[in-house]
Amino acid sequence: MTVETDQARRQQLGEFLRSQRARLSPALFGLQGGARRRTPGLRREEVAQLGGLSTTWYTWLEQGRDISLSAHALGRLANVLKFSVAERAYLFDLAGKRDPHASAGAEPAAPSALLVALETISGPAYVLDHLWNALGWNGAAAELFAGWLDGENDRNLLHFIFLHPAAQLLIDGWEGRARRVIAEFRIDYGHHLEEPAMQALVQSLIASSPFFAEAWPVHSVVGREGGARRFNHPRRGPVELQQITLNPTTRPDLKFVMLV
């Protein structure tokens, strides 16, 4: 990041905080309003006090100064200013920090609307969480991914790809796809590095899959992209589909995957 870019981000952060502070009514916090207030919303010192922060530190933050920022202090600000999920994510993006609430606060279940949407898609479709557990899928996905989404199998996609013999037969060009999957998964790993469940998942794969254990230390990182996916289905023979992956706005930790 250049000096100019860093300065621009700090300026945007300060302007964002000022605008959000101005929209909050003092009455929400049991504070006196009235004509004696020269500016709308909360005062800087009130935000700082409510968040357990130094007034000087918060003032410098709004002024766009180059000061030390902790993720927990930013989280307290987000709570005081009553940020939505999107506003909180924007705050941490501007500050260049990882939100500690992103892992701990994520809901494990998929929103019901996503599960309903699965049944409206004719091709295979499923929803993954950040650990790549399937939270929902349609009948076409269960039919395609035998050994993963059918029966009483383990619903973790990484376990299926690296530990289930059926995956190597089903996925055409398995080795290349498996290396790509590891590189895609590393992004989720980086976002949830401190989560015990994430560490446990990676350690279980290293211990159980020689291929994963060999490829994981390479530290390849790529974005999850769509494109052609080829399968050697045990009943249908060769199948080629186009994969599309979407991230719901309200739950960016989830992946809505369609094969059309």
From TrEMBL:
Gene3D superfamilies: 3.30.450.180, lambda repressor-like DNA-binding domains (1.10.260.40). Residues 16-88 form the HTH cro/C1-type domain. InterPro entries: Cro/C1-type_HTH (IPR001387), Lambda_DNA-bd_dom_sf (IPR010982), MLTR_LBD (IPR041413). It comes from the Bacteria. Pfam families: HTH_31, MLTR_LBD. SUPFAM superfamilies: lambda repressor-like DNA-binding domains. This is Transcriptional regulator. It comes from Labrys miyagiensis. The lineage of its organism: Bacteria, Pseudomonadati, Pseudomonadota, Alphaproteobacteria, Hyphomicrobiales.
